[in-house]
């Protein structure tokens, strides 16, 4: 019986220590791991003013604890906090940690950090630049929402998810590098990033959700990935500076207002052999609502001009046949083989490495005029005159242009 009581007492003591909160005269800490002696910086009763340096260790009852995290809401609404220095021992910054710190000008994110929660820097209007370390995989919901003066952010190669509203209303953001590991960009992620000028969306992205880049009014160019299948409602609505748009052949769904009020559009290039039906569920064709389509060139494969001239919405463009000069070429230096070259038996074969998937082949003459196209890895050169031609190979990783000789 005595042993049971002793064991129960020991458990109660451990539980008490585990939930122990203490302060060092400046900050409050909560013990989160007694075995490893880890503590988290806890929410304060009084906000710090000016500059703040969080130490690597904190001492309580002659025990040294390592500071490994910033607790939820720890510094939320600290409106006189200016600069924060975090120690290299920090691994987690929890939700709302610096929520609504409107005067926060700078904060370092140590290389030790591998997790940043939701709304961490929500409404930190004075924040101008920040670097996220390698190892972080997710930019959480509303993490940088309304950071209106944030003009530079460096994302690590490990980021695979950008959640909803992560950078909404970052009106000063001019450039952002989206890493190749990125697979998911959620809705409203870059809503109203009014200064963002150009963007390359990585090849692993296959969906652009609703309102993702809406009201990015300075966006002049955007490179869509070859694996893209879905463009959601108002995804690029009011991107009024966007001039040139190439829609990958892989896209099979474009929802209403996707490019609405993109009043700066000059050229749109598409590669479908059959015009994509873009009516919404009510039968309305408003994907380009607010755009004066007769003033916009639509470049299509010449063999299918008639089909586009009869298709809803597409027929309203200034339709032209594609030439080499208006196709975007991205070099693939290896892993693509065309054989035999010279072509002597009326058939050209295309071999790709295992990690590549063929989207489309196009054959051009040296004047840049398209002769034929196919989605198969074989090109019939029958009826072609002898001479030099150009073959454009479009894959899931980009495009390659190669010369061939037809005998």
UniProtKB/TrEMBL annotation:
Coiled coil: none
Gene3D superfamilies attached to this UniProt entry: 3.40.50.12480, Ribonuclease Inhibitor (3.80.10.10)
Domain Secretion system C-terminal sorting: 338-406
KW Signal (keyword) present: yes
Alphabetic keyword roster: Signal
Listed InterPro entries: LRR_5, LRR_dom_sf, Secre_tail, Surface_bspA-like
Domain of life: Bacteria
KW Transmembrane helix (keyword) present: no
Signal sequence range: 1-19
Pfam families on file: LRR_5, Por_Secre_tail
Full protein name: Leucine-rich repeat domain-containing protein
Source organism of the structure: Neotamlana laminarinivorans
């Amino acid at each position: 019986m005595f042993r049971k009581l002793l064991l129960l007492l020991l458990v109660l003591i451990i539980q008490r220590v585990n939930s122990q909160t203490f302060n060092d005269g400046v900050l409050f800490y909560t013990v989160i791991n007694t075995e490893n002696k880890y503590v988290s910086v806890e929410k304060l009763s009084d906000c710090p003013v000016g500059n703040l340096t969080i130490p690597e260790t904190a001492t309580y009852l002659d025990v040294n604890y390592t500071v490994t995290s910033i607790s939820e809401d720890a510094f939320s609404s600290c409106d006189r906090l200016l600069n924060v220095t975090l120690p290299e021992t920090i691994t987690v910054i929890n939700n709302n940690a610096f929520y609504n710190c409107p005067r926060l000008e700078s904060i370092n994110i140590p290389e030790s950090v591998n997790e940043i929660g939701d709304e961490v820097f929500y409404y930190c209007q004075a924040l101008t630049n920040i670097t996220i370390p390698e190892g972080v995989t997710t930019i959480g919901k509303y993490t940088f929402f309304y950071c209106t003066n944030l003009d530079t952010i460096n994302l690590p190669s490990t980021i695979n998810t950008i959640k909803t509203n992560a950078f909404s209303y970052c009106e000063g953001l001019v450039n952002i590098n989206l890493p190749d590991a990125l697979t998911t960009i959620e809705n409203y992620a870059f809503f109203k990033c009014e200064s963002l000028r150009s963007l390359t969306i990585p090849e692993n992205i296959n969906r652009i959700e609703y309102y993702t880049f809406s009201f990015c009014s300075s966006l002049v160019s955007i490179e869509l990935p070859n694996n893209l299948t879905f463009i959601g409602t108002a995804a690029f609505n009011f991107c009024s500076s966007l001039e040139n748009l190439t829609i990958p052949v892989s896209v099979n769904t474009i929802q209403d207002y996707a490019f609405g009020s993109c009043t700066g559009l000059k050229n749109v290039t598409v590669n479908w052999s059959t015009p994509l039906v873009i009516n919404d569920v009510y039968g309305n064709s408003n994907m380009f609502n607010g755009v004066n389509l007769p003033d916009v060139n639509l470049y299509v494969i010449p063999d299918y001009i008639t089909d586009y001239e009869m298709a809803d919405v597409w027929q309203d463009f200034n339709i032209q046949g594609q030439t080499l000069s208006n196709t975007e070429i991205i070099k693939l230096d290896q892993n693509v083989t065309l054989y035999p070259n010279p072509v002597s038996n009326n058939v050209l074969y295309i071999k790709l490495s295992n990690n590549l998937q063929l989207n489309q082949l196009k054959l051009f003459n040296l004047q840049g005029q398209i002769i034929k196209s196919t989605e198969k890895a074989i090109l019939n050169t029958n009826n072609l005159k002898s001479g030099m031609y150009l073959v454009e190979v479009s894959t899931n990783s980009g495009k390659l242009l190669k010369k061939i000789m037809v005998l």
